[in-house]
Amino acid sequence: MFGKGAGADGPSNQGAGSGKGGLVRRFEAMAREAEKAGRFDRAVHLYVLAFEESAAGSQHPDARAIEFLHKAWDAACNAKERALAEYVFERLEPYCSSDEVARHAEELQQMTLDKLEEFGLSRESLKDMADMVADDFTHFGGLFQISSDALAAKSPSSEDSSKEGLAKPEGAVSSKQSENDLQSPYSYTYKDLVGYGRAIEHMRMRGVGLDDDPHFAEFLKMLSRRHGIHNTPSVETTLFRSFAREDANRFMAATVGELGYPTVRMFMDETPQGIPVLCLNATSDMRPRSGGRGFEGPGVLVLEDIDLWGAPLADLADEYDSFSFAQLSRGAREAIMLIRSAVENPEVVVLASSAEDSQLEEFFLELLDPIYVFDIDVPDEAERSEVWKHVASLYPSLRFIERSDLVRLSAHMSREDIYLASREAVEQAYGESVSKRVFVPVTRGNIYDKVAAYQPLDSKEYHELEEAAVEEFRNDIDGLKPDDIEARGNK
Q1: For residues 281 and 153, is the Cβ–Cβ distance under 8 A?
Q2: Cα distance between residue 264 and residue 147, in whole Å
């Protein structure tokens, strides 16, 4: 709105500094004065101007710039102007967490109810009407939520267990971090994964993960010259399946990171009322096609845990015909159209994930056809050794347990299960340390007990773990003095 030199065009700007920073401070000061005078509508526009000037020339606005939008939102709410609040919400939404988006949406609804109440409509009748609309949406395809640049929320890397699946703990996502502090979960690639050697090699055979290979790059250039295609066409949907769906999702996320294209992610979630909702997130570099939400240029569509999408799509579209399609809500119809358009677009890579033992609905098999099923096996001995080595780097007290024994006894376990068992053992030792006020290390019996919980009862690994636990218990008894035994008996 303003040129770069707008903040230094005359003597009137000298008191507030010059250049970009001075102009931002002027807008902020004027906005505060407007708030004090009760001119909240004017304050909204001034805070938005402060944001635009502060964020000018930057692809990712900093926290201070985004704070101006939060202040603009507060001013719009104080003005009780829904139109103003919607205007600010559109600017603010890309920088909000999912909880903040839901809260602001409720505030917008509250403004609408307040305004309608002024026209004589009772709040009870308005609430009944809203419930009827909600029931209709639930019956015809559920709710459909869309938010841009929000991939950090509920991402494959947002859980503690997922951060342990990355090779670089410092690059992982802590559960204590704010969602606003996170970047895309697809910012990590194959080199950051642990225990996926065979899967990575398989994808490289398919041409993914070879950006650092100059020979392959030259090969692609030759193909582009001879065929006239500048991007490798995507001719099929890749369905990642694994014994533990977390393993599949983690590998799929790294695959997206390798591709480096603008990404749209679709996944199922639940509202606080327990209603299933289909959510759609997009990275900030995603450019929607004019007239719709399709892709403009190369991109990636991620369908997370598609085997769990029992509603709102599959149950209501057993037959993919015009009648059943018309019965779906607008959001569900747009979701189906987006998926199908991506499948048919050779510039868009479609990736989906599911559990290995799940069977996709026939509806999805037809929607995603053709499908290439890629089963990610549980880690072999070499991959398990990698995982346990990484576990020891995360939890130093586990370094004193013989790694070769852990590798052998964790056969047939998923990567996710190994990290979970390790975490549980460490947390137990930590809790005992706090209780006793002394350092309690993770013992062999402790970690064996946690690993055994993830092994089938009829497996030879479980029986060996059971025998080891009994042996350790006997050793503990043999090492006790009579006074210790008497003391324990008196407790």
Answers
A1: yes
A2: 10
Terminal CA-CA length for the chain: 76
193 CB-near residues (< 8 Å, 6+ apart):
165, 166, 167, 200, 250, 251, 254
Position of tokens 């009760």? Answer: 38
Rounded to whole angstroms, the Cα distance separating 373 from 355 reads 12
* pLDDT tens, residue by residue, 92-147: 888 888 788 888 887 877 777 666 566 555 555 545 544 443 443 333 334 444 44
pLDDT of res. 89:
85
Nearest to 367 by CA among 330, 401, 325: 325
Intervals of the chain under pLDDT 50: 1-18, 126, 129-163, 167-183, 290-292, 311-312, 315-327, 485, 487-488, 491
Number of Cβ within a 10 Å radius of residue 315? 13
Structure tokens at 415: 């990567």
171/194 Cα distance (integer angstroms): 13
The answer to whether the bond into 312 is cis (omega within 30° of 0) is yes
As to burial, measured by CB atoms within 10 angstroms (0-12 exposed, 13-18 middle, 19+ buried), residue 17 is: middle
Cβ proximity of 200 and 212 under 8 Å: no
